[in-house]
Amino acid sequence: MAEPAIPTRMAFQRLPFDTETHLADVRMFQQEGFGAVYLIDDERKAIIETGTSGDADRILEAVRSFGLKPADIDAVVVSHIHLDHAGGAGFLLPEMPKAKVYVHERGLKHLVDPTRLVASAREALGSEEADIFGTMRAIPADRLVAVKDQQRLELGKHALVFLDSPGHAPHELTILDEHTRCVYTGDAAGLYFPGDEILMPIAPAPAFDLEKNLETLQRLLALQPRALLFSHYGPHTNPKAAIEAMIIAYPEWSRVVRGKLASAGEDGVLRELYEMTVRAAKRYPRDFLERRIRVSITGLAAYHARMEHAARTG
Ligand SMILES: [Zn+2]
Question: How far is the C-alpha of 33 from the C-alpha of 277, rounded, in Å?
């Protein structure tokens, strides 16, 4: 069998276009090539994304096997506060005494007290899927930094610029590295399945907003980045094509859910979206991809219900 093009060992591996930027596959949800955590090994050390609560130990192990101590980490950045991005943060911090967690100003209070966030995730995901997404541990307020649009984080050679990027969630950030001109997209640009080369919208309940997500995609396009660094999963080196594909796919998915959910049911819509988007998948199992699609069907249905309610009540 041919070697996979994307590093899949549970260790940080250098990205081809930069000497300080590294990627580890945390095998989120037991799936290879789905949960990416990035390390920038500059004068100050930053970790971008923290996976789920279940991924924290593997992240610590990856930091150690890279040759750093977790205590060397200065900054932990979460793109947004969903459990598969910020869930690991509260479990990493006791091992990273120097580190501050950088989070969108709208998300900060939920990391101080995650009770409502965890409950709302359970409701949106259903209990079986919620168990897989794990939990959260409260983070003391003095370990958190509330991030605003255009705020900078200087690491040395690298400087990160945080960009308010609503749509997937109101507390979503994308992060431009001015040194590499790459953008960490969180979930703002959807999901990328390397190898299969699939690009898939991700539109979760309770707060997905199509119009805002499309504005965010336009903002990313205007940056003319050199690569997109997806949290799910890894670098995409043709950003223009990827973003333009998403600008088409999000409204298409929205139309299919709106037009057919009542008549075809969730399973019918799932079949249609699967055919449209991921029919050619080989590396990623069908069941795994279907679970991701179901999250968006639920989220788009909630979005349409909200829009209709707003139209009725003026
Ligand atoms: Zn995610």
Answer: 18
The Å distance, Cα 314 to ligand 1 centre, comes to 33
Q: How far is the CA of 122 from the centre of ligand 1 (A)?
A: 15
The CATH class that applies to domain 13-246 reads alpha beta
User: How far does residue 36's CA lie from ligand 1's centre (Å)?
Assistant: 10
Q: In angstroms, what is the span from residue 80 Cα to ligand 1's centroid?
A: 9
84 Cα: distance to centroid of ligand 1 (angstroms): 5
- For residue 179, give both structure tokens: 């040194």
Does the reported pTM lie above 0.70? yes
What whole-number distance in Å separates Cα of residue 162 and Cα of residue 183? 10
- Alpha helix (H) ranges present in the chain? 56-66, 83-86, 89-92, 108-112, 115-125, 127-133, 210-222, 239-277, 286-313
CA of 292 to the centre of ligand 1 (A): 10
Domain extents for the chain? 13-246, 252-313
Which residues are 234's β-sheet partners? 230
In the reported structure, the alpha carbon of residue 312 is separated from the centroid of ligand 1 by a whole-number distance in angstroms of 32
Q: Which tokens sit at 115? A: 């009770």
Angle between helix 115-125 and 286-313 (nearest 10)? 110
Question: Are 63 and 70 spatial neighbours (Cβ–Cβ below 8 Å)?
Answer: yes
- Tokens 């991700």 map to which residue? 202
Digit-coded pLDDT (tens) for 34-77: 999 999 999 999 999 999 999 999 999 999 999 999 999 999 99
Residues 6+ apart with CB under 8 A from 213: 166, 167, 168, 188, 203, 250
Pairing mode, strands 144-147 and 152-154: unpaired
